Amino acid sequence: MNDKIYLSSQEIFHAARKLSLLPENHPANNMHGHNFVTGLKIDPLEQTANSLNDLFSSLRNLVNPLDYQLLNDFMDNPCDKNIALKLKREFDNKAFIKSFVSSTPQQGAICDALENISLWKGFAFQAAHQLPNVPKDHKCGNMHGHTFEVILFSYGEAVNSHDLELMCEFLFKKLNKKCLNNIKGLENPTSEMIASWAWSLLENKFDSISHIVIKETGHAGCSFDGKSHQIWREQILQSAISDSSNSDTYGYGYLSRLYITAPLDQVYGWTMDFGDVKKIFEPVFHQMDHHYLNDLKNLSDFTLFGLVKWMKSQLKEFLPALDRIDLYESEGNGVELFINKD
Question: 51-63 and 80-91 helices cross at what angle (nearest 10)?
């Protein structure tokens, strides 16, 4: 099988709503407003310079009627799930992979092509930790702190947003303002071990969690689905480019994200050191950052599709556990390359 490349676009709209089906006295039962973030992901029929603009225009046309409106005028219960369903049905495109809506940075819903729904909810907590098994000169061997972020993803209709709130509250009370090394099961509190620990707690108390995300920083994180761990690391590339859709030279602050899936190291308790991922990416980073991308050796397709394929060609020898590369022109607007390892 070949690699798969998906195209994603994101847009914001502002609207008011009043929800139903929540517990009595829940604040969302009152009229309130949000800056909604919405998105579409497709399997593009064509990989051209205009593909992303076309997708963004389609998304903008879908959310324009909702902008600065009362969402209850469009649906009975305008929760994130129902808005995501509405986007999917109105987009009505065979290339559709998923739609998503987040009403706040801490919660949202995802709808796939079969109209399966996944809800997610996140929270932040402050805590200290140190990694006891790293080499002596590794900075994470020192006691230090983070504002961690946790995101819980559900699947199916067996869980609702209120259930996720309860799960988040349960974990928050156990983690916030603690030294993680002192918590049973977190003696070596890497992101991967925190994700596994949280999974084991929720698995015994709640059903229908599909995966858990842990972020130590804004540019790196880990995901665990009960079986395998995946980490990612982000970097910004300040680059110039020109392509067939625009004869002028222009540029972006591209966001690049590398995903790695591998077994846990039994000593260090991580899939891979985030610092090692950065180090392996450095030769590629230095070729792209503050450079004119049209001058890259062996690059002939000056679109996002061509760039992400070129990045894979440069990294695959040195990062065999790499299974995905994202490259975005702006927040939420870009391509996602899923690498086939068969």
Answer: 120
Assigned domain for 94 exists? yes
> Residue 225 burial (CB < 10 Å; 0-12/13-18/19+)?
middle
- Domain of 14? 1-112
Strands 178-179, 117-129: parallel, antiparallel or unpaired by DSSP? parallel
Q: Which helix (H) or strand (E) holds 15?
A: strand 4-17
Q: Is 202 helix (H, G, I), strand (E, B) or coil?
A: helix
Q: Which neighbouring-strand residues pair with 333?
A: 330
Q: Assign 243 a pLDDT band (cuts: 50, 70, 90).
A: confident
For residue 145, the cross-strand partners are 128
Residue 50 forms part of a structural domain: yes
Let me know if residue 36 belongs to a domain: yes
- Residue 68: CATH number of its domain: 3.30.479.10
Query: Could you give the 3-state DSSP secondary structure of residue 286?
Result: helix
Tell me whether residue 123 is in a domain: no
Greatest alpha-carbon span in the chain? 62
Contact 29, 56 (CB under 8 A): no
Q: Residue 282 corresponds to which amino acid? A: E
288 pLDDT more than 60:
yes
Taking each helix axis as running N to C, give the angle between helix 274-288 and helix 304-315, from 0 to 180 degrees, rounded to the nearest 10.
130
Record the tokens describing residue 100, joined without a space.
Answer: 């998503």
Is the model's pLDDT at 157 over the cut of 80?
no
Q: How many domains does the chain have?
A: 1
| Residues whose CB falls within 8 Å of the CB of residue 1, separated by 6 or more in sequence, listed in order | 340, 342
pLDDT confidence tier of residue 27, bands split at 50, 70 and 90: confident
- Would you say how long the chain is, in residues? 342
Per-residue pLDDT tens digits for 255-275 = 999 999 999 999 999 999 999
- pLDDT, residue 26, reads 81
The pLDDT assigned to 158 comes to 57
Backbone phi, psi, residue 237, to 5°: -115, 115
pLDDT at 114: 94
pTM, two decimals, is 0.93
